[in-house]
Structure formats: C-alpha cells, structure tokens
Write a structure and sequence with these properties.
420 residues, alpha/beta, two-stranded antiparallel sheet
C-alpha cells in the first residue's frame, strides 16, 4: 500500500469502504496458499517474478532496463505550443500552485487526473488511457511499466535539475543510469507518539520496534498501519530481522505470531489515520509514515503545542525507507513539456513549495531538515520526518516480492488484521 492510497483531493482520508484486508481476502493470496503456493518458494528464482521473468531490482542486484530499441526524443526541441499537458498522479500528491506556475512559465495548460491505487493506474494505462506524465510511480511497478511499453526512455538533456537531486538518484539500483525515472518523494516508516501522554522514549530503548508497542499499560491507545508490507515488516523488526523482503515462511510466520500476540496484549488498532489520531490524542503510539506526521501541525487541537508529537526513525537506518519516481509515458502527445515538467519539480524553490503542501520530502540536496524549519515548513520537533541521504543509504526497502512469497505475506497479514 502507498501512503497516498485512500485520500480525497482536499487532503482528507476517504471514509472506509471495502478495506484493504477485505480486498486481499477475496484475492489470489488465500487461493494460492490453499493450493499449496508456499511450497513454490523453493523453486523460485531469487530475482525473478512473473511469467516474463521480469527482474526484481535490489541494492545488491541492480538492474539496467533494456530500451528494446526505443530511443529518447531528440535533443533541442521546443516545447509544444498551445498544449495541454496531461498528468496522472496519486490523489493529493502535488501542490496545485506548482502546477499553475509551470503552466504560466511554459504558456500551456496542465490537467491533473488522479488515481487511488497503483493497480488502478496500471490498469487504466494498459486500457489505452493517454497521459503525458505518470507521477509517483513506485519502484515495484517499474518492470511492469517498462515490459508493457508504457513509459519511454528519457532524454537527459531536458532534465538539468537532476544535478540538484541526491547523487543516489543519478544511478539508482532500480534504474541504472536513470534511463526511465527521476526521483519524486522519499519517506520513512517509523513510530509516532504523544510525548505528553507516554512515558517512553524510543531513543532510549534497545529495540523500539518492539518495546514501544508491547505496552499493556497503553491498552487501546496503540495502532499499526493498515498495510500488509508495513505490518509484517514491523513484526520482523520486532524480532531483530531486517530482511524486509524475506521469502522465508518461518520468518513470516514468526512475524505473524508476534503481531497476533501484540493484538491480544494491547487491544491493537489498525488504521492509516496516524496523521490525525496522534495529534488529537486518540492514539498515543502509532506505527507511522514520515510524510503523514509532517502534517501533524494541521491536526493539533486548539491550545495543544505541536511539540508534544514525536516521530522516531532509527539513527542506524534499520527501518523501512521508500521513494517514488516520475516518468514520461510512451503515449505522451507532449513529450518535451513532459520532460520539462519532471525537471521543474526538482528545482529547489518549486520543491520547497510542493513540500509545504504535500508534506512528503523530495530528495533535493539543498533541502535539509534545517532549511525546512527555517522556511517554517516543519516545526523543530518534527525535523525527524525529513528524510536525509543517510536514511536512504542505510534504510531497508520493502521491494517487490516473488509472487508466491508475496502471497505468504498477504496471508500472514490477513490472519493478523482479521483478528483486530
């Protein structure tokens, strides 16, 4: 699940409908496991998935994607005139002011169409819907986008602002040579807590992933995210396991059992309302996304200072970190403007304006936690929500899994979440 799933355009969460776990319970995971899918793990190639053997990028197994004869657009072309740039993006994932300023600068129109899940986006692109830019593409779908010929290789001459991005993204392991992608946002998964209501400090604990949650004295006030990868990863880290892409059934079962024990002990809650429940005191300890907690000032009750909200991510980097990418679609009618748009979003002043509304940090070298505080985008007490290069380099990615291993993760999550 992506942190932006389930958001309305006004920046609020959608009312619950068919929950993620209900959808999963009707999906292939249970069917595959019932058919003995777990036994397939021994036969699974470690870096392949699907019938087309699409590689699974890993930091220790980087991937340079084939261009299949596709060539980037020529250099030196002028932006398309009288054009309407069509952007496809997650709901509430870009500051409209940045969209408007781009349109003014390049004398064009920009229309943003939104999606709620990456699966929805892929399905609509495969059906023939045409846009110029796909924003927020997650690393786990790059193989599908490239194999399906949905995105085009980039002409780097139009994307000069790549020099403002962290060096990591000029040769990322998931797209060596950044042939198809430029970075958009980056975020961590950590722990949010109310400092005035909880007498615990994660920085003083040996394993906060476990010790912050196994607290019966805060029964009914502890929550984890409603997300199968994040939750099973949490259970793994509670047991000192930091391979968050494990295919080991024993490790996945251990995580499941740990979370089931936790649910019984503290009357565990499961939801994605970390951004509001911690500020308003409904939840005192919440498994949380960094970008959500950057928005805490907007949800504080009147008279309650924002500095009572804390966000912890381990200084040694042993925690989940993820980033989204921007791409130019193969069907683009305005490929020059599309290149210029993804470039524009990496310019520091534009990125700062975007972060001030979006909350999710962009990996631009000059944008530091100190700068965000100086610009009054973040309060000093929430500087930890700003991801820094070391977080990305030391953090652990929750990456695409082989199909049968993914089914094990989903099945474990169903057992946990259905019991909450």
């Amino acid at each position: 699940m992506h942190p932006r799933e389930g958001w309305r355009p006004d920046g609020s969460r959608r009312a619950p409908g068919l929950s993620r776990r209900e959808a999963l319970s009707r999906g292939f995971a249970a069917t595959l496991l019932a058919a003995g899918g777990a036994s397939l793990l021994d036969a699974c190639a470690p870096y392949l998935v699907g019938p087309n053997n699409i590689p699974l990028p890993r930091p220790n197994h980087p991937v340079r994607w084939p261009t299949s004869g596709d060539k980037p657009i020529p250099s030196g072309l002028a932006p398309e005139k009288g054009a309407t740039l069509q952007v496809y993006n997650w709901v509430a994932y870009i500051n409209q002011a940045c969209v408007n300023s781009f349109a003014k600068k390049y004398n064009c129109k920009v229309e943003v169409t939104t999606f709620n899940t990456m699966n929805e986006a892929l399905a609509k692109l495969r059906s023939g819907l045409k846009f110029d830019v796909l924003m927020g593409a997650t690393i786990d779908v790059l193989g599908d986008l490239i194999e399906g010929k949905l995105i085009q290789p980039l002409n780097h001459s139009y994307i000069t602002n790549i020099g403002q991005a962290w060096p990591d993204f000029q040769n990322p392991y998931y797209d060596l040579g950044w042939q198809y992608t430029v970075p958009y946002t980056i975020y961590t998964t950590g722990i949010a807590w109310r400092k005035d209501l909880v007498d615990l400090n994660p920085y003083a604990q040996r394993n906060p992933w476990k010790e912050m949650f196994f607290q019966p004295k805060y029964r009914g006030k502890i929550a984890i995210l409603d997300d199968y990868r994040e939750d099973i990863s949490l259970g793994l880290m509670m047991n000192g396991i930091y391979n968050l892409n494990t295919t080991s059934k024993d490790q996945i079962d251990l995580s499941r059992n740990t979370l089931v024990d936790l649910a019984d002990l503290v009357n565990l809650q499961i939801d994605n309302n970390d951004y509001s429940e911690v500020p308003d005191g409904q939840t005192w300890i919440h498994h949380a996304w960094s970008g959500d907690m950057a928005a805490a000032p907007e949800y504080m009750p009147k008279g309650v200072p924002v500095d009572v909200v804390g966000y912890w991510f381990p200084k040694d980097g042993k925690g989940p970190v993820a980033n989204d990418t921007n791409t130019v679609l193969r069907a683009s009618s305005n490929p020059v403007l599309a290149h210029l748009f993804v470039n524009y979003l990496m310019d520091e002043p534009v990125a700062l304006e975007n972060i001030s509304w979006n909350g999710y940090i962009q990996p631009i070298t000059t944008i530091t936690p100190e700068l965000l505080v100086k610009e009054q985008i973040l309060p000093p007490s929430l500087m930890t929500t700003a991801v820094v290069p070391e977080d990305f380099r030391k953090g652990v990615g929750e990456l695409q899994l082989p199909v049968d291993a993914d089914a094990l993760w989903q099945q474990a999550y169903l057992i946990v979440s259905n019991g909450i």
